[in-house]
């Protein structure tokens, strides 16, 4: 059985790239060797996926196509050494090199990439103020939203906030689930729960059903929150699998 949150190899590419079929075949061959320990995903470059390039500090003109191994729970990424024109020109050599690259990763012999400069990090999640909460969360109900409420004075908030960000990375290829966070010390955003606000808190805002906001009360781990979204979010695809509910109105 494959792990519930396996590592992912992302092939970030334009589908009209002439060498795409050859590189995709190499990725398929590597998937056979990794024995389900690594999920292999093709991510076509489009307006809805360019934030993924930003997340890894990749330039669309210089670095694409690219192959990136991602360990979301550990917030680690490992870029395959051939990318951009170098990958295109050497596409026939990719299969054996990629198989060995993944084998080294599984043995723990690869060094993670340094994170890109902060200015290149993506908006995988949104810092929500009062106005954005009304317009971006409550009124924009065609997507599911998960919102984390915290304050800097909360001792356990930093650790849970880091988990929340890691979940956003896991779902970075799912455009129908948005992530937001509210700093309760500077934003007067009323929590859906009655009574005094509670920090930290996580709320799930179902698509097409903002009248039934749900407080997430499960364990705050990447795996647990991911499993929750796979059950309660609207239908979506992740790593080649279909999850979520069906909404006739969507």
Describe this structure in words.
The chain has helices at residues 20-34, 50-55, 60-63, 85-89, 94-107, 130-138, 157-170, 222-232, and strands at residues 7-13, 38-44, 66-71, 76-79, 125-127, 144-150, 177-183, 201-205, 214-215, 236-238, 241-243. With 250 residues, the protein is α/β, with parallel strands linked by helices. The chain folds into two domains: 7-107, 3-Layer(aba) Sandwich (Glutaredoxin); 123-243, Glutaredoxin, CATH 3.40.30.10. Helix 7 (157-170) crosses helix 8 (222-232). It is elongated, with a radius of gyration of 19 Å. The relative contact order is 0.13. The model is unreliable at 118-123 (pLDDT under 50). It comes from Aphanomyces euteiches.
Low-confidence stretches: 118-123
CA(first)-CA(last) distance: 33 Å
What's the pLDDT, averaged over the residues? 84
Strand content: 15-25%
Count up the helices: 8
SS-based class:
alpha/beta
Going by CATH, the architecture of the largest domain would be 3-Layer(aba) Sandwich
Strand order of the largest sheet: 5-7-6-8-9
Number of domains: 2
Reading off the top of the CATH hierarchy, the class of the largest domain is best stated as Alpha Beta
The main pleated sheet reads as:
5 strands, mixed
């Amino acid at each position: 059985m494959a792990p519930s949150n396996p590592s992912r190899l992302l092939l970030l590419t334009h589908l009209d790239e002439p060498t795409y079929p050859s590189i995709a075949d190499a990725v398929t061959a590597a998937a056979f060797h990794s024995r389900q320990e690594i999920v292999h995903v093709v991510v076509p470059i489009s307006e809805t996926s360019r934030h993924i390039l930003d997340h890894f500090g990749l330039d669309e003109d210089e670095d694409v196509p690219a192959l990136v191994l991602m360990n979301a729970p550990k917030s680690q990424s490992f870029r395959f050494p051939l990318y951009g024109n170098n990958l295109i020109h050497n596409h026939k050599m990719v299969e054996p090199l990629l198989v060995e690259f993944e084998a080294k990763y599984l043995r723990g012999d690869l060094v993670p990439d340094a994170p890109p400069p902060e200015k290149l990090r993506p908006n995988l999640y949104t810092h929500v103020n009062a106005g954005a909460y009304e317009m971006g969360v409550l009124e924009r109900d065609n997507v599911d939203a998960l919102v984390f409420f915290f304050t800097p004075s909360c001792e356990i908030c930093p650790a849970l906030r880091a988990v929340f960000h890691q979940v956003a990375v896991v779902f970075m290829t799912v455009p129908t689930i948005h992530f937001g966070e509210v700093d309760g010390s500077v934003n007067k955003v009323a929590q859906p729960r009655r009574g005094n606000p509670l920090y930290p808190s996580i709320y799930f805002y179902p698509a097409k059903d903002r009248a039934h906001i749900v407080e997430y009360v499960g364990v705050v781990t990447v795996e647990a929150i991911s499993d929750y979204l796979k059950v309660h979010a609207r239908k979506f695809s992740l790593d080649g699998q279909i999850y979520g509910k069906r909404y006739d109105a969507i």
